[in-house]
Amino acid sequence: MMHGKVAIVVASAAPEALDWSIDNCTVQRALSVVGDRWTFVVLREVFNGIRRFDEMRIRTAIPRQVLSDRLARLVAEGLLRREPYREPNKRQRDEYRLTQKGLDLYPILVALNQWGTAYYADPEGSPLVFRHRDCEGQVTAALQCSEGHTVSSVRDVAPAPGPGAKRLRAPVLIDGLPDTGLDAAGRGANVAQPGRLPGLRANKRSHPYFVPLSSPEPGSKPLPWYLHSHLWKR
Questions:
Q1: What's the 3-state SS for the chain?
Q2: Rounded to two decimals, what is the model's pTM?
């Protein structure tokens, strides 16, 4: 299909993510702390008020050494803290309480329970729900953008390079011009990634149109944003 002097070709292109390093991926780093089989089970227990070693071990059937290792790791990573206690006629022991860093994982626990309920619950439903203390309403996890919009479908979310992103491959230059992002008018840049239109980084609200480098025919309109995902060539 032709649009002005730009030809739009529907074709498969390599994922843009291949252009970026994952060496400093924060998802990968987080999973190195909580991503094994037992760690989140331990956190679930502490979130539910089970703070003592023997109670956790009996309730979860986690092997003693495994539980000890997981608790020590969570303390070392700053998700739990030890608090001494002593029962009558017994030696002093520690119970485990959440730090703020650990409490910040609570939405992940809610989302994980929500997903597990949807796909793995018994016919009777989940044995665990989360309720708002003020009104007893059930608490669920939801996505929201920085502008305050509730995201109803994950298909409305797109991953993008963050401030710590490190490029592995250099961008493709068009007519020898460098990567300038968007111009002052919010129009397309002079650089395209392989298989992408210039200016694709901008979202449809801030960058509704791509203006091709070649001047369009008189009277022709710029490309609408929904065509930006197609492979292009001049």
A1: CEECCEEEECCCCCCHHHHECCCCCHHHHHHHHHCCCCHHHHHHHHHCCCCEHHHHHHHHCCCHHHHHHHHHHHHHCCCEEEEEECCCCCCCEEEEEECHHHHCCHHHHHHHHHHHHHHHCECCECCCCCECCCCCCECCCCEECCCCCEECCHHHCCCCCCCCCCECCCCEEECCECCCCCCCCCCCCCEECCCCCCCCCCCCCCCCEECCCCCCCCCCCCEEHHHCCCEEEC
A2: 0.65
80-85 vs 93-98, strand pairing mode: antiparallel
Task: Give a yes or no: residue 110 inside a domain.
Answer: no
pLDDT of residue 97: 97
Whether residue 65 is contained in a domain is answered as yes
CATH of the domain at 67: 1.10.10.10
Regions in the chain scoring below 50 on pLDDT:
178-216, 221-234
